Amino acid sequence: MCGIIAITTRKKTNVSKMITSGLKRLEYRGYDSVGIATINEGQIQIMKDAGTIDQVTRKYPFETLQGSTGIGHTRWATHGPPTKINAHPHADCSNSLMVVHNGIIDNYLSLRKELKKQGHIFTSETDTEVLAHLIEEEFKSEEGPDAVIRAFKKALAKIEGTYAITLIHTADPTKIFLARKDSPLVIGVQDDTKFAASDIPAFLEYTKNAIVLKNGEVATLTPEAVYIEKNGFRVQPKPFIVSWTAESAQKSGYPHFMLKEIHEQPIALQNTLSVNINAIEEATKQIFEADKIILLAAGTSYHAALTGYYQFQRLLSKKPIYPIIASEYDTYQQLVDENTCILAVSQSGETLDVMKGLTSARKAGAKIISIANVIDSSIPRLSKVSLYTKAGPEIGVAATKTHTTQVALLARLALQLEYSLEGWLEKEFSSIISNFSAEVPSIARAVITQNELKSKQLAAHISNQNHSYFLARGRNLPIAMEGALKLKEISYIHAEAFPAGESKHGPIAIVEPNFPVFVISPKDETGKKMLSNSEEMKARGGYIVSITHKDQEVVKRSDQSFLIPESSSHLVTPISYVIPLQMISYYAAVHRGFDPDKPKNLAKTVTVE
Ligand code: F6R
Question: Mind listing the pLDDT tens digit for each residue in 171-225?
Fold first, then answer.
């Protein structure tokens, strides 16, 4: 939540233009206010306001700011509403320094009180502003060439909470100072230009050389060099080359990132299924050795984790397996010990609820396997085994390709478990794997092609509705849950998913003519009962939309049907069946006049509890 970017360059250029384009790539992290500050000839210049980047830059042309060192921020409000004064960057009393921050300063109220007593004047309601005044206060007793970094470190020692911070100071005008604790910060390295940002796409058009700043590290960037330290000791940076392309972080002709990302699923699935076999084998070993498994995730990633639960439970019937929503971890923590294997699923690899659970589980001695999309993010770094979805950057706030690739990777893991349990011959196994790896992308492609127009038409039809239901049974339930989450989060049509059998225990009461009911009914053992539940809804006037297979009886009894090609394995179902639901949600949002890439009140990477 919140996107930050900082650039310092030796080139005779103004960084404001690069910062603005970087902010556009970070907008998925927050979009209620935006700001930029540069240092030009020893003076701070700043522009900021509430609104999206496009709205604010129409009023304040960021790109006219001069200077070769600067910082920018796009906000998802936590402390104080989205207003001009609360927008970042935040200054000290004398406008000598500017900070931008992603995270939460837990002890900001006591610090603010103390600083006010010392005479500091606050202009915003944010927790971040205390940082600016705290650094200003510490700077008073410092002198010499390293005065700013010393003051910065002393200020950091006084704050509690989570942060990624970038700081510029007129006393050291070509440097950028950074610190990180539990909120992401990545450094980009180009010959005579250095970048820092919440996420790689912000600087991907300039460089693919990156360094992840780790928890507890503090860094100084000059145009030529990167200095990192931790607890007073110099840390040798570990640069890596980013495999994502600059184009992958652009819309490439699509009206929205979400639609582009839906269409990228076949290739993302194909890439993801070309797995690192050592990591898969190690994960399998950890799962077998543990005496219980916990799947931990939030939101859409939780729905992927839930599909994993159904797959693993079928194979490991004697081993307790618990799918847990990360923010509820505390309720289950007594289950966790050194014989527990936690499988964490997170696109960003930074979700705070998941991080908190994992940190506690690690203390209890649990072994952690993670599935993430962002390489070297915090969750993989807490893990014994890191598996990666190779979906490329996902910019649309609603997860699509990262969800289906998570499901695919969990299915791949299930196949590996099955191989070990069933004693398949190696030849037999490799043929199963290569069929699966070929079938998944090809079915995904067919589903998109065959259902897109229909999704658009249906979206238009249901767009005037305020409520909807998503029904499924057994292992298909996560598909319904994901469909409902997608629809509500971007089109704002209220959507509820529940096991179809529960209808009669309450939900059916509000069904009336034209009430959309999505029925997830693959060709499997749930089909018959799904048909009865669908009929019950239809009898009350429900508008039945089935996601099903052409031979299913429910097709005849539905108002609309989305037909999914048959696959050789039930492991493909949670991928192929969710795609039409993504498309319907996308088109419903567009039809209702909303931007599906930036749903209100949401941000992509959730680094608050
Ligand atoms: C919904 C969505 C969120 C995320 C959730 C977890 O479309 O994207 O529900 O799935 O915030 O995020 P990650 O996967 O980054 O841990």
Answer: 999 999 999 998 999 999 999 999 999 999 999 999 999 999 999 999 999 999 9
| Residue that terminates a domain, selected from 249, 266, 288 | 249
434 assigned to some structural domain: no
Q: Give me ligand 1 centre to Cα 419, in Å.
A: 31
Residue-level pLDDT at 486? 98
pLDDT confidence of residue 114: 97
Please work out whether the CB of residue 346 comes within 6 Å of at least one atom of ligand 1. Answer: yes
Residue 212 near ligand 1, beta carbon < 6 Å: no
Mean pLDDT of 551-574: 94
Pairing of strands 367-372, 43-50: unpaired
Are residues 208 and 258 both part of a single domain? Answer: no
**Structure confidence at residue 605 (pLDDT):** 81
Instruction: Based on DSSP, count helices (H) and strands (E) in the chain, helices before strands.
Output: 18, 25
Residue 420 and residue 347 share a domain: yes
What is the count of structural domains for the chain?
3
469 and 503 belong to one structural domain: yes
Query: What is the CATH number for 295?
Result: 3.40.50.10490
Residue located via tokens 């409520």: 467
On whether residue 436 sits in a domain, the answer given is: no
Express each pLDDT in 497-510 by its tens digit: 999 999 999 999 99
Q: Is 230 a catalytic residue?
A: no
DSSP 180-202: EEBS--EEEEETTEEEEESSGGG
Note down the domain range covering 152: 3-249
Is 245 in the same domain as 302? no
Question: Hey, which of 76, 199, 300, 600 would you mutate to test ligand 1's pocket, going by the most ligand atoms within 8 Å of its Cβ?
Answer: 300
117 is catalytic: no
**Three-state secondary-structure class, residue 280:** helix
The beta-carbon contacts of 57-63 under 8 Å, at least 24 apart in sequence, are 57/20, 62/16, 62/19, 62/20, 62/36, 63/14, 63/16, 63/17, 63/20
DSSP state, residue 375: T
Locate the ligand 1 atom nearest the alpha carbon of residue 402 and give its number. Answer: 14
The catalytic position among 24, 175, 367, 604 is 604
In angstroms, what is the span from residue 179 Cα to ligand 1's centroid?
25
398 CB within 6 A, ligand 1: yes
| CA separation for the pair 595, 114 (Å, rounded) | 43
**CA 299 / ligand 1 centre spacing (Å):** 5
Say how many Å lie between the CA of residue 488 and the centre of ligand 1. 14
173: in domain: yes
At residue 245, the pLDDT reads 83
Per-residue pLDDT tens digits for 394-405:
999 999 999 999
